[in-house]
Amino acid sequence: MLRIWKTIGVLVAIFSFAAASSAPSRGGEASASILQYLAKRAGKLAAQRPPLPDTAAGWEQHRGKLVKEVSGWLGLPAREAMKAAVTHQKEEGGLVIEEVIYHWAGPTYAAGHVIRLKENKGRRPAVVVCPGHLAHYTWLGYRQFVEGIARSGFVVLFIEDPRIGKRLAADVALYAVGAAAGTPVMGIQVFDALRSLDYLVTRPDVDPGRIGITGIGAGARQAWLAAALEPRFQVVVPIDGEATCERLAQLPGLKPGSIADPSMVPGGLLGHAEWNEIAACVSPRPLLIVGNTRSPSWSAGDYAKVLGTAKKVYALANAAGAIAAVRNDGEDSMAACLPQIEPWLAQQMKSLPPSSAAPLPCGKPDKPDFKVATWLRGRIAKEAAPWAESLKSQAQWQAYREGVAQWLEKACGLKTVQPGAAKVIGTSKAGGLAVERLSLSIDTGLTCPAVLVHPATPASGKQAAVILSPDGRLSAESPEVQTTVRQLATQGYWVLVPEHVSIHAKSPRRLELADVPGFFAAADLAGLSPMGLRVAENVAAFQYLSGRPEVDSARIVAAGSGVGGIDACLSAVLEPRIAGVAAANVTTFRDWAENVAPEELAYLNTLPYLPGMLAVTDLDYLFAAVAPRPLMVARLREGWPKSGFEQVAATAAAAYRLGGAEKALVAVGLRDPLDERIAKLPDGAQKQVATVVRAILPAPPIPGVVGAREGLRSRDTVDSAAAIIWVLDMVGGEEQEFCDGGYRLDTWSFFNDNGAAQQGRAITPLVFKKEGAAFKLTGIGKTRVNTGAGLQTFPFEMVQGSDQVGAGSYFGFYTGDPAGKPNAGVVEFGEDYQDRMIILTLDGGMETQKVAVGQRYREQSHWPRAYAIQAVSKRK
């Protein structure tokens, strides 16, 4: 115990200097600096936009280029033949309210509400209302506006946001998956508007030549973009939507909490156009710009810039009278704008000639799916199909890898930053280790704090080094990171920890929802994604280490866990001099999107993707691109799902085999005998990578042992049901899969101290092999009888099948004797959310299941229980 406290004291001493010198106050300067940098970067991008043409012909040429680029940036699907239906309708106060569904793309449908007069004779003008962020037409500010317009004789279609109602999708998941797939949420919602028009022109009560579009806030930005791309929107009324991209990038730093959701802003648009140019694309159609001085995104300068550009272009088209602008000083709602909008809208619609075109044909919906993610997954699958082809030969793989590396450099924004020289801010020594506090230069106006720890006493020759990239939740102050750093530094490594933007309380670059919103919005607008920023900081860390005379530049590896492991990998792909990669808790983005993203609730942690990534590659191929350098990937007990880890390992293995470097890749689970593997490795980069993985991973369980982690002791109760087949799946958050490598089940133990009350009950040990979602019974041990005396240990003594265990093998038991009568449970258990026991079934039932080697069982149910049972396997 004394030794433990001494270690903690040394760690505190090592890192306290950096913490005292650099930790900001709550919501302080260091957190704001990244936002300020991104805002300035966005400003530079806006300033680089070319001047607008001053002739009508020049503008039309510029407009054509803008529309093409913006359409590509939005990643819009093809517009297919329309299918739609009214699924429900009701009458309220002289209005008919219809719930409608209409085809979006592929198997996916959109939904909305059509509001119209009950007495609606002939073909009427229509208005599409874009919902903005999570809006619904029943909200008071929207409903009063919608009903007011409808009572004026308009057919109003209010679009259902893709994250609510029938279309319910997790906010963060839709944002991340859409961005990675190349169709951001703004693109999804703009396509919503385009398909709304496609639906309206099929209705016999709508005049297809008199359709307008409106929205407020983010809805206004959707309306601007949809109108710029679709000239059939004849009248456009954006409300509080004149904020430029440059302005939106400044908002997080100016007003904390003003943009918590990056899907509300048109991230990435600045690479193609600024907002005043988008606005001008509406010319020469009637346009009413409504600005709201109460909105946090309102700016007199933006209002003047958007209005000025639009007026200039309208003048070039001899349509100066078609544009109008008003300022709404009332509350921030569409209803407050109704008195200003309704008369103007009615006048403009009346001035348009009625259309004689017949309604377009409309089919009936066929098995509609309302989840946009369904279409995104289909698109991703099509994009991914050619990736597997790249692994058919070394030549194909190298060509693919080179293309991916070129894309990665651009996606991370490395060509857009100009790093300078790093600086040493301060030094200290404690416990035989030296600590240097650094400032890494990433770009003009952007630095990254870092901590370098190494032995205080200089060693002979140049030393190996590690770039340790913390997970998005952590910083150098985190106990997990401190422990890893000390373990490596005491072994002689030089360990550099870049202080990425984090949510850790002691991080000098902290972002917290209560004080400062996530920086995704500003990063997207500035063209430097959160993941790209981390990669740039890792590369800067390598540049610094490789320039230190004490460090061997040929023995620098990149390492990390979670997001840190992913950006360590990306850094190595871009910097070929990095000697190897050690990554714990890795996944593919597709698996993350399927199994993790729906549970993400906030835009704080850096997400494991780059914008547009899935049009080119996925994370498993990026890990494969590290080949032929040493790569070790390891699974954590509380990491991402195993399926993503296995895909990374499988894809990387295929690439390493092509290059004849199979031995340079190692994939391990928490229960694998890593120390044994490290001992067998020769000195060099691979052993260094494995040593780093060992330091990152928590203390491992005993190889070959599964079951109760806190010892076999008395628990609360035993099962009352009889003849149940149980599988030990999770204990303390750790999967209970046996380690691989020639192990056989040796002994097993359980605890029951209930005396005579439960004496004589039988229990039979079992071994299963997981195959997909099924558990195949591979071995049956000798049935034992409970004595009720407490801890009871027995040899497995195989009766049928095999006692061999390995990867995919699990321990289980049957409550009874398969050859005799079933009985109630024997093993004592208590409730524990970190433990998971599975009941297996053949016929769907729970009790009286048959036990037979070779039979494939499926899960009947699972329970959060901690059973006092354990099994021990040994090499034989």
Task: Describe, in plain words, how this protein is organized in 3D.
Residues 1-32 and 253-259 have low confidence and may be disordered. By secondary structure, this protein is α/β, with parallel strands linked by helices. The radius of gyration is 32 Å and the shape is globular. It has a nine-stranded mixed sheet with strand order 1-2-3-5-4-6-7-8-9, sandwiched between helices. It has three domains: 56-374, Rossmann fold (3-Layer(aba) Sandwich), CATH 3.40.50; 400-696, Rossmann fold (3-Layer(aba) Sandwich), CATH 3.40.50.1820; 705-875, Sandwich (Jelly Rolls). Strand 10 (423-430) and strand 11 form a beta hairpin. The longest helix is centred in the first third of the chain and has 21 residues, at 2-22. Helix 4 (140-151) runs parallel beside helix 11.
Short description:
The protein is of the alpha/beta class and 876 residues long. The protein folds into 3 domains: 56-374, Rossmann fold; 400-696, Alpha/Beta hydrolase fold, catalytic domain (Rossmann fold, 3-Layer(aba) Sandwich), CATH 3.40.50; 705-875, Jelly Rolls.
Topology (SSEs and partners):
Blueprint: H1 2-22, H2 29-47, H3 56-74, E1 84-92, E2 95-105, E3 108-117, E4 124-130, H4 140-151, E5 155-159, H5 171-181, H6 185-200, E6 206-216, H7 218-229, E7 235-239, H8 245-254, H9 275-280, E8 287-292, H10 300-316, E9 323-328, H11 334-351, H12 372-389, H13 394-411, E10 423-430, E11 433-443, E12 446-455, E13 463-469, H14 479-490, E14 494-498, H15 520-526, H16 530-547, E15 551-561, H17 563-574, E16 580-584, H18 589-595, H19 619-624, E17 631-634, H20 642-658, E18 665-668, H21 674-680, H22 685-696, E19 705-707, E20 725-731, E21 734-735, E22 743-752, E23 762-771, E24 774-781, E25 784-785, E26 790-795, E27 798-801, E28 804-805, E29 809-814, E30 829-831, E31 836-841, E32 856-863, E33 865-867, E34 869-875
Parallel strand pairs: 4-5, 4-6, 6-7, 7-8, 8-9, 13-14, 13-15, 15-16, 16-17, 17-18
Antiparallel strand pairs: 1-2, 2-3, 3-5, 10-11, 11-12, 12-14, 19-34, 20-21, 20-29, 20-31, 22-26, 22-28, 22-34, 23-24, 23-25, 23-29, 24-27, 24-32, 30-33, 31-32
